Automatic annotation (TrEMBL):
Domain EamA positions: 7-143, 156-291
Stated name of the protein: DMT family transporter
Protein's organism: Reichenbachiella ulvae
Membrane topology type: Multi-pass membrane protein
Keywords, in A-Z order: Cell membrane, Membrane, Transmembrane, Transmembrane helix
Keyword Heme carried by entry: no
Transmembrane segments: 39-59, 71-91, 103-120, 127-144, 156-174, 186-206, 218-237, 249-268, 274-291
Record lineage: Bacteria, Pseudomonadati, Bacteroidota, Cytophagia, Cytophagales
Residues annotated as signal peptide: none
InterPro entries: AA-Vitamin_Transporters, EamA_dom, EmrE-like
Location in the cell: Cell membrane
Domain of life: Bacteria
Cross-referenced Pfam families: EamA
């Protein structure tokens, strides 16, 4: 049991770090003038063939496990997760820094705990509350030197990222319920296919239909997002949720702000201060607390 949980925490850490890199790649792509919905479409188009292939390899499981109730739930959580949450996230990144985006997005562990309690009747454990409190303290320390939200654009960006946190938390809770019924691989593939279809439909309604005239860097970043920050982490995160549950995974996700601040410093030239480093250490302490306490129990 301990070995499985250790594997779950390791996969969660790797998945969160890879997924967090998306914010940096989005900011790099925006330099080339690409719109949010176009960038999201490119990311999904490059990822879609992989999800279709893996679904086809699991077709026998699909026929036996996908009943009408699961299908409707899958459509809902596919829509919420990597479509709506991603769209709000991509849009919000037009107005605020990548490091600040990841800090705001970190409110979703609390939302996950509350939704899991309300809808899945999962008890909120004291160790989870303590771990989240510690990691929140670290995030607040990292946030201390950020500029205030005096401009309308900054406020809009913050609001969009908050909506992304809410929709992604809903997706995680839905994953916790559906993964045992469908299996982590099949669930991830189907949910991502739903998300891809939603993005395609969205683009057909509002897109500029000018996908072939961007600089080569945009396509390179889209492929990187599709592989390194979508396909691989989507399976890692689903399997980690299977091993840990959504609540413990959401605490591990606090590594997201830490990794994004470091990546934004390296690739975007965003400021990295001593206070932010101290905050990152506090976050790591909180993550260590939840993993350590659970392994002892």
């Amino acid at each position: 049991m301990n070995n499985k949980r250790q594997l779950g925490f390791a996969l969660a850490f790797l998945g969160v770090v890879m997924f967090s890199a998306k914010a940096v790649m989005v900011k790099l792509a925006y330099v080339n003038g690409v719109e949010a919905v176009s960038l999201l479409l490119l990311r999904m188009l490059f990822a879609l063939p992989v999800y279709l292939l893996i679904t086809s390899l699991n077709f026998s499981k699909l026929k036996t496990r996908l009943n009408p109730k699961n299908l409707w739930a899958l459509l809902l959580f596919g829509f919420l997760g990597y479509y709506l949450a991603s769209y709000f996230d991509f849009l919000g990144l037009k107005f605020i820094k990548a490091s600040l985006e990841r800090i705001i997005l970190f409110i979703y562990p609390t939302i996950v705990l509350i939704l899991s309690f309300l809808f899945l009747k999962k008890k909120i454990e004291s160790r989870q509350v303590i771990a989240i409190a510690i990691t929140y303290l670290g995030v607040l320390v990292m946030y201390y030197q950020e500029p205030d939200f005096s401009s309308t654009e900054s406020m809009l960006g913050v609001g969009l990222i908050l909506l992304s946190a809410l929709t992604y938390a809903s997706y995680l809770v839905g994953s916790d319920w559906l993964i045992p019924q469908l299996g982590s691989t099949l669930f991830t593939s189907l949910a991502m296919i739903v998300s891809c279809i939603c993005v395609i439909l969205h683009y057909c309604m509002v897109g500029d239909f000018d996908l072939f005239n961007y600089p080569a860097e945009v396509y390179g970043l889209s492929i990187a997002m599709a592989t390194l920050s979508t396909i691989i982490p989507s399976y890692l995160i689903s399997y980690a949720i299977k091993l840990l549950g959504a609540s413990d995974f959401s605490v591990m996700a606090s590594m997201g702000p830490v990794s994004t601040i470091i990546l934004a410093w390296v690739f975007l030239g965003e400021q990295l201060t001593v206070i932010q480093i101290v905050g990152a250490i506090v976050v790591i302490v909180g993550v260590y607390y939840v993993t350590r306490k659970k392994q002892k129990s």
